[in-house]
């Protein structure tokens, strides 16, 4: 099977990933068709949290179910004749979407957390095998996703590496602030030349608080400063911001396709720039394809449901029903989330967590200080209260005040905007918070 897959990996399949052309605006999806595609969403909930779990349209759910039934009808036929060519086709589409040099650079895995563990497992082996010295450094952003931080602890710290966090400000006002703090962390990492920075883990769009990170500039700094390798965790990347492997220049890059690219959960890609470093990447699950390269290993890790990985071509067809395709969707989502964020901040007398140009399809909005958000526990209690009593689903971030700060905003809501969202949902959120303020509500009133 590995030989068959290698044969198909040639660039002769590039034509598979060409976006279909739409003849006229009359071909574009209508507002009523969009609502029909997402009619399975709970209508009682203002779902302004696409960032957490994404959203899958009904037509893609149907396509996935057909694939699941094909497998169940005759699993052997599906395995021997459909599975690997289908996954290769999806990889080819992804290769075109992200402007990778070659399809061999693209592997499909379950999610970005899995991809991070694959890369970090390689780092742990380098320590264990003596290629890295004890105390060598991995750099990560303070904004890094919690599961990735745990993975760094499990693989890098446990193997003897030193982890340095880039302390970033929030609210953030410019990319210069991020670049300045990143350079400072790199200097600490090198410690007068006594240690080497082996790996930098950089978010493309930080999850919480949500900010678009200037990854291309940070990758360039890593190259200048002699960082061995750069891994970009872009869980929110594809479908949310521009993703171009040859432009960004990272060694490893991962993004979920179920968050902002309409795939069913769960599917992600892991890009590995063609180099010797690619050869010693392996899937966490060792199965029959071990040693045939990460892409082939990932295409079969045992009997499981691979249907989410196979519908990528159908998802691209869905995205191209919109004017401008996925690029048009990204721009409209960005414009709309900024407008909604500004509306909420004005209504509550607060501020955004970053300038509009530093957000994609999510933005942080300050909540009124009178709500008394004083801990991460308070954010969870308030989020549950909004869900259970107001039908609003939105994540909340706790921003601890500095020693000298009094009466500052300590809670920020992360709102998302996807094609199915309506203005009424954000007004529902605005009114819910206004009602809490009017009632003299504070988080201290919620039971623990």
UniProtKB/TrEMBL annotation:
InterPro entries in UniProt: Aminotrans_V_dom (IPR000192), PyrdxlP-dep_Trfase (IPR015424), PyrdxlP-dep_Trfase_major (IPR015421)
Gene3D superfamilies assigned: Type I PLP-dependent aspartate aminotransferase-like (Major domain) (3.40.640.10)
The Aminotransferase class V domain, residue ranges: 87-275
Keywords, ordered alphabetically: Pyridoxal phosphate
Coiled-coil annotated residue ranges, if any: none
Region (Disordered): 1-21
PANTHER family, per the entry: HERCYNYLCYSTEINE SULFOXIDE LYASE, L-CYSTEINE DESULFHYDRASE
Protein name: Aminotransferase class V domain-containing protein
Organism: Carpinus fangiana
């Amino acid at each position: 099977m590995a030989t068959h897959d290698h044969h198909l990996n040639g660039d002769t399949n590039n034509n598979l990933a060409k976006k279909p052309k739409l003849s006229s605006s009359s071909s574009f999806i209508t507002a009523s068709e969009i609502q029909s595609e997402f009619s399975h969403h709970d209508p009682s909930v203002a779902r302004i949290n696409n960032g957490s779990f994404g959203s899958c349209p009904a037509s893609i759910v149907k396509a996935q179910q057909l694939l699941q039934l094909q497998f169940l009808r005759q699993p052997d036929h599906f395995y021997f004749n459909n599975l690997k060519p289908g996954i290769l086709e999806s990889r080819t589409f992804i290769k075109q979407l992200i402007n990778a040099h070659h399809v061999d650079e693209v592997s499909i895995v379950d999610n970005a957390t899995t991809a991070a563990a694959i890369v970090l497992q390689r780092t742990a082996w380098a320590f264990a095998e003596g290629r890295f010295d004890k105390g060598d450094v991995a750099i990560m952003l303070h904004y890094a996703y919690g599961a990735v931080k745990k993975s760094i602890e499990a693989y890098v710290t446990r193997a003897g590496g030193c982890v340095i966090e880039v302390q970033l400000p929030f609210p953030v006002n410019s990319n210069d602030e991020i670049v300045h703090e990143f350079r400072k962390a790199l200097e600490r990492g090198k410690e007068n030349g006594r240690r080497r920075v082996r790996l930098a883990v950089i978010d493309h769009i930080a999850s919480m608080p949500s900010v678009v990170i200037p990854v291309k500039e940070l990758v360039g700094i890593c190259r200048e400063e002699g960082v061995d390798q750069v891994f970009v965790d872009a869980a929110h990347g594809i479908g949310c911001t521009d993703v171009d492997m040859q432009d960004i220049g990272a060694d490893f890059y991962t993004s979920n396709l179920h968050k902002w690219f309409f795939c069913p959960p769960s599917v992600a890609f892991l890009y590995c720039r063609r180099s010797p470093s690619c050869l010693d990447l392996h899937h966490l699950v060792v199965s029959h394809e071990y040693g045939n390269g990460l892409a082939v290993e990932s295409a079969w890790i045992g009997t499981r449901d691979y249907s989410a990985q196979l519908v990528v071509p159908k998802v691209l067809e869905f995205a191209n029903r919109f004017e401008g395709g996925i690029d048009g969707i990204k721009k409209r989502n960005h414009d709309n989330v900024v407008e909604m964020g500004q509306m909420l901040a004005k209504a509550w007398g607060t501020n955004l967590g970053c300038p509009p140009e530093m957000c994609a399809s999510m933005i942080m909005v300050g909540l009124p200080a009178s709500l008394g958000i004083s801990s991460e526990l308070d954010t969870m209690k308030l989020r549950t209260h909004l869900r259970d009593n107001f039908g609003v689903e939105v994540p909340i971030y706790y921003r601890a005040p500095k020693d000298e700060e009094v009466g500052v905003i300590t809670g920020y809501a992360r709102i998302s905007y996807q094609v199915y969202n309506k203005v009424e949902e954000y007004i529902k959120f605005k009114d819910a918070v206004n009602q809490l303020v009017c009632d003299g509500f504070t988080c201290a009133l919620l039971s623990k």
